[in-house]
User: What shape does this take?
Amino acid sequence: MARISAGVATSHIPAIGATIDNGKTGEPYWAPVFAGYDWSKQWIAEEKPDVVIIVYNDHASAFDMRIIPTFAIGCADRYGICDEGWGPRPVPEVIGHADLAWHIAQSLILDEFDMTIINEMDVDHGLTVPLSLMFGQPEAWPVKVIPIAVNVVTYPPPSGNRCWQLGEAIARAVASFPEDLNVQVWGTGGMSHQLQGPRAGLINAEWDNRFLDLMSTNDGETLRTIPHIEYLRETGSEGIEMVMWLIMRGALGRMVKPLHRHYHVPASNTAVGHLILRPAESSSSEV
Amino acid sequence: MARISAGVATSHIPAIGATIDNGKTGEPYWAPVFAGYDWSKQWIAEEKPDVVIIVYNDHASAFDMRIIPTFAIGCADRYGICDEGWGPRPVPEVIGHADLAWHIAQSLILDEFDMTIINEMDVDHGLTVPLSLMFGQPEAWPVKVIPIAVNVVTYPPPSGNRCWQLGEAIARAVASFPEDLNVQVWGTGGMSHQLQGPRAGLINAEWDNRFLDLMSTNDGETLRTIPHIEYLRETGSEGIEMVMWLIMRGALGRMVKPLHRHYHVPASNTAVGHLILRPAESSSSEV
Amino acid sequence: MTGRTRDIHAYLAEFDDIPGTRVYTAKRARQGYWMNQFAMSLMKAENRERWKADERAYIDEWPMTEDQKQAVLDRDYNRCLDLGGNIYFLAKVFSTDGLSFLQAVGTMTGMSPQDYQAMMIAGGRSPEGVRSIREKR
Amino acid sequence: MTGRTRDIHAYLAEFDDIPGTRVYTAKRARQGYWMNQFAMSLMKAENRERWKADERAYIDEWPMTEDQKQAVLDRDYNRCLDLGGNIYFLAKVFSTDGLSFLQAVGTMTGMSPQDYQAMMIAGGRSPEGVRSIREKR
Ligand SMILES: [Fe+3]
Ligand SMILES: [Fe+3]
Assistant: This one.
């Protein structure tokens, strides 16, 4: 039986990808950003997940204004790397796990989530930067990936509550997959950042750290009820990406055990946040 | 304030469109099919709805296997007519109501429906045949249209319960639109038909008529719990399209007053069913 | 929530119990992906011309199995369904041949066009005995 | 259900209360549709070449208002946002110019690139006083 063994939260800032690709992770500006991932890289090398479900958002890369899915799940065998304007990142193509992805997609729709199924798609920095942060620069990614793309660009994004519920439903779906697979769920994006207007550059380290606390200790009653306006006011317009962390968090069950935590300001315009969490209950399917 | 004044259910058989387009509605085979819409045409000429929300499914016309949205809502100003293999039907282009459509789309997402927003799309017989049946062959359609495309091709389609809930949420959304608009909701597709395999041609008039009864008299507790397998076993593999009628029915509130009913076998491979219903409660927003 | 089936395995298993019917599940959608995308390509007039000019050459451009290609070339729609085809996609093939849904669908029943048409006019195929293989009803 | 706002009007109204911020609502998405689709077209190398060769000729191919075109030609990103632009789409314009997010985003703040960069290194802009116009906090 497949099981969700851990959750990872991490920012997915494009400049981090460029820094890795250009071999500049040792520069003084960047070293403290990457230092917080040293433990994570060792940890994941030991964990050896088979599949990672990566919750991310497309940044006007694969999707434009013609079609805007709220929740899209990739069911393909492979995903190409988007050209976001400077040519595609020089990273390996992303290999899917179509069996598990279709199983989850079908289960979620039966469970009354109105998923959009995607069979052909390129993925952007929102998905590849977390892979680089966790795995460095391998010849091929050592995991299969199921992309879940969430709309957080055109308003309204899904509510925090709906994201949490989707996470719970993903856990149920994974638990009913017959093959024995070690599955992780990653929530990406955030933390504080605003990339537009006179208020650009906003960082709220206090709020971010309270959110990291809640992600580590709260059973969800507080987290899932944070309204969109609070993310926007407190953490900048792009801070809304943090609703995607709630999908990961919801998939881990009521309580979690925090394994690792990292916070740094700045990377480009953004606060970097990172968490590794274990489900505290024996089985996340008992949610 | 916008209000849902009526619901219409109708089959959307492509051969009906071809018959209208070729001026053959008077032929003996076809006359009884169209006779059931005479009352409806008169009725709608008096009702003069401003906007019709048409719930339909795309038949591998605008969407292929690359992307499969469970619930998609058209927010465009206009929609072209699909070329389904014989050139586009010679019908007027479909004019949207982008203000109301975006209002409904935003409201539904806030209400935790995981909509896919569509801004450019051609529409196929699933949407245009009902327009032809209700309005004949005008120079321009006398209503604005909001398309809601439901996946009923790749399994699983949304549950009957989820469809009903979407209808209820559409009613809430329409009721909160400030402009005074007369809005109808149409559910299309069905009734009995199977277009594939040795069992093709299946028609279950008894089941279809019980469904028409329930649509007219039931408060939903029975209708919304009909499982997919029952549609398939009893009404043929394409009978599943009837789940789309439940979106219309859910939008009308708990009880309805039936105004008109029509049932005929066959049209091509299919049983034709048609209903016109009024919400029985003073306001459908009180659901 | 209603007492609906949430277990996808049980949900899908029931579909195999319907006689003479292939439900377009993920398994079929994956198997038939390129057959269906091939068929979809015939929505464009220029592709229809190329297909009509040389069916074999056109279909060889698609990553389909030889079985799938042959089933399409043979217009053996039951076989196409067995290999993952979906009728709404395959409709592009029979529409290009100038066949209506009524004509094309009839070919899958083993009946003559006349008999199939006559059955439909007489009220269609009865559901009696073709609801469930297991329950023989 | 939680006690969340279900009323879309109240939900949207709150966004106008955030200083120096344009939330990409339906209203903005509709106003800026073609500006954003124009920007998206720059993801293709051949379009970038045509744009760089003659910006005015390239942008005139798009059904944008003259105000929108001028705002893009001027690289006035605040004005672009006012006219319905979204930063992830507009990023294709500044990426084509060879600007990073850090450089481009800074131009919207009225600060010099050096000052903006220094502010970020010092911990970013404080939320104090820029949370709410109405509540002055
Ligand atoms: Fe992002
Ligand atoms: Fe249909």
User: Anything to note?
Assistant: DSSP finds ten helices and no strands in chain D.
